[in-house]
Request: fold
Amino acid sequence: MSGPLKVGIVGLGTVGQGVVRVLQKNAAAIAARAGRAIVVTDVSVRNAAASRDCSLAGIRVHATPEAVVAADVDVICELIGGTDLANDLILAALAGGKSVVTANKALIAEKGNALIADAQARGLSLSFEAAVAGGIPIIKVLREGLTANAIDSLAGIINGTSNYILTQMTVKGQSFADALKDAQKLGYAEADPTFDVEGIDAAHKLTILASIAFGTPLNFAAVATEGLSKVQAQDIQLARELGYRIKSLGIAKRSEQGVELRVHPTLVPDDHLLAKTDGALNAVRVHGNAVGQTVYVGRGAGGEPTASAVIADLVDIARLNGARPVVPALGFTAAALAAQPTPFPILGIEEIESAYYLRLTVADEPGVLRALTTILADADISVEAILQKEPEDHEDARIAIITSVVSGSRFDAALERIRALPFVRADISRLRVEHFE
Ligand code: NDP
Ligand code: HSE
Reply:
């Protein structure tokens, strides 16, 4: 067996502490799998007084991340987050001949093309399994396990915090604000939780998944994103009555016209596995042309699930024993990525087709339904399901409609006509529906 793989960790927060704990408690099994021990020798902490939920016995504790990058280690684990300091630290580590493991999806999605090229030019690993779906090894699945397939679509719950919030609101009737506070306490949320609730974190992850699935360069700017602020408690309730759950999904599809990339709250039929994926669990459905549909479910956030993915990357690096990595970071060779058209054709959100859920508040008077359905029929949009609720104030009624599949632009044009009807109130909700057929 070679000598131990020496690991330096920058950022000893939720994930960093999880990595130290799991490496310590599973040291023997990890060494037996890697062919050598994997040992954390150096860490950085910004606040030396803060208590840490892991043993730092025998580990050199530095006051700055730069000191860890300069230390005598083989690999740097970047677990700070953000896209500036983390970027500088990774570039410095690579320049110093050190491979890098990161859980930082924002950085990989936004600056990953250059970082990956830098690592590759130096013959070093830049690994980021933990960046997507926490403990689910979805990057390895797409990059290696499904390598025989042309992937045509993937869709998933890829943000644990928003799934936790929606689950708490749906199952326990908790308020959005209270559920978010709990998700933060449990270590699921990003330093800035806006990233979770506005779909930005999921967009970062979708960027990475789509690139590996389709062989296209990372393109975060191409993702159309809508956050949870679109969802009201009444929509959760109406969706349930119509036979759906509302989930925040990341969806990527490839067709001859180009790639569609979107993150938004979505109605999912309540008998689908994604609808049953609750709490901080993540689930990713991948469709390949040889394998068909596959679904991966697991804990998508939290210290130890994420550490599981970080350590899997460390084991791959330990097994290389200093050799060049053989699996390209994005699954396709640099030459294949470079051969893609630039810019790669991305479908605008208005071109994307889906079914819709529409919730309207209307004056409770005769002719309302006929006027609504006439506008939809004029636009060649079928009503697949409709629900009218008794008026609570004896004045206005609530109507929820599920439509047939239609392009965003055609639906929006019909919605503008509906909005202009004199009996339609301003409070309108419009969400997409996925049936996974
Ligand atoms: P935390 O906020 O818990 O930890 C971040 C750590 O980085 C802290 O220890 C903090 O130090 C340190 N740090 C932050 N800023 C600086 C700075 N300017 N200089 C030096 N140290 C700094 O974050 P997480 O552990 O939750 O997340 C880390 C990374 O992992 C992020 O990229 C996140 O997106 C990703 N991730 C997180 C998951 C999760 O479930 N939490 C899951 C998957 C990925 P100090 O403690 O001293 O303040
Ligand atoms: N904030 C992220 C989430 C952490 O809630 O999914 C895991 O990437």
